[in-house]
């Protein structure tokens, strides 16, 4: 697949504007005091369908020809990409099938179905979801929209960083969660062209730290079925996202399960916004590595808010 370009990102932003929110940037003096940094939270938890992935999914769906669109789209996803692809497909009035692990939060399954998507369940491992997905594509003939290893998706995700630096002046760093690397790759794509002085960090759970180990090893290391409260960050890097990570990411920082949950509680308590565990990983790593960020202006991407309110991690 072709590596997406900065021009692709600009085209994507114009294409998807009718289908996304320009999400707000929020701050918290209390959290700034705890971290020693000035944090600017880009709230993609307030995005259409509740996650940043509405950007990449919408770009992919609305870039299809009419002939391709008639066959529908399909993907495999632990939740947010599937929800957002179903959202975008609904906007274009085309079919959408999502392969999801049976362990995915019920709230995310409900969201996919709420946008008219069809769910086919699999085991909670990369090998299972890819095997089941192959059967779905053979059955439907749908266009595959990968959750992150897709140039259309990465270009769409890059629009988030474009908005962020238009909304906040003089950032020193930007940090986002990393699983497969779609948001981080889009951030790299955008900032390396228009703000190359900004350091890009990724944040990852200690119990699903394959991206961190990959960066240190200089090659992709993939775990098949890690266990973490940050359910959106269990998938491994792929070739396109690895290209951006190895070329532009300054470091990948990790946090424990307890640190992730405490950061999530802190944001809920102090900022009064709903966000999911995956979105708390960046703040958890900032609190843990205050020496890295002290005195800096840091953009923090809150990637999604699709949490199961009946199974909050502190219960």
TrEMBL record:
Single GO MF annotation: serine racemase activity
Lineage, top ranks: Bacteria, Pseudomonadati, Pseudomonadota, Alphaproteobacteria, Hyphomicrobiales
Protein's name in the database: Pyridoxal-phosphate dependent enzyme
Signal peptide, first to last residue: none
Similarity comment: family membership: Belongs to the serine/threonine dehydratase family.
Positions of the Tryptophan synthase beta chain-like PALP domain: 16-304
Record SUPFAM superfamilies: Tryptophan synthase beta subunit-like PLP-dependent enzymes
Keyword Lyase tagged: yes
Organism for this UniProt entry: Methylorubrum extorquens
């Amino acid at each position: 697949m072709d590596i997406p370009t900065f021009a692709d990102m600009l085209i994507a932003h114009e294409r998807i504007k009718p289908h996304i929110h320009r999400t707000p940037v929020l701050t918290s003096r209390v959290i700034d005091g705890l971290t020693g940094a000035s944090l600017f939270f880009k709230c993609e938890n307030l995005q259409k369908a509740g996650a940043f992935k509405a950007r990449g999914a919408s770009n992919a769906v609305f870039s299809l020809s009419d002939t391709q669109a008639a066959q529908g789209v399909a993907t495999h996803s632990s939740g947010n990409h599937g929800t957002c692809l179903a959202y975008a497909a609904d906007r274009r009035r085309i079919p959408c099938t999502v392969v999801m692990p049976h362990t995915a939060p019920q709230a995310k399954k409900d969201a996919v179905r709420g946008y008219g998507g069809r769910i086919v369940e699999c085991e909670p491992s990369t090998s299972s979801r890819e095997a089941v997905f192959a059967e779905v594509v053979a059955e439907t003939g749908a266009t595959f929209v990968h959750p992150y290893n897709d140039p259309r998706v990465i270009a769409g995700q890059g629009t988030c960083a474009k908005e962020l630096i238009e909304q906040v002046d003089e950032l020193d760093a930007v940090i986002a969660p990393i699983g497969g690397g779609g948001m981080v790759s889009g951030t790299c794509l955008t900032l390396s062209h228009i703000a190359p002085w900004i350091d890009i960090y990724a944040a990852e759970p200690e119990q699903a730290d394959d991206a961190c180990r990959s960066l240190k090893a200089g090659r992709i290391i993939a775990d098949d079925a890690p266990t973490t409260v940050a359910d959106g960050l269990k998938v491994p890097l792929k070739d396109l996202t690895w290209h951006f990570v190895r070329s532009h990411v300054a470091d990948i920082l990790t946090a424990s399960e307890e640190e992730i949950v405490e950061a999530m509680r802190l944001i809920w308590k102090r900022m009064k916004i709903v966000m999911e565990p995956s979105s708390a990983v960046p703040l958890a790593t900032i609190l843990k590595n205050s020496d890295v960020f002290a005195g800096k202006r840091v953009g923090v991407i809150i990637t999604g808010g699709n949490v199961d309110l009946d199974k909050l991690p502190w219960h």
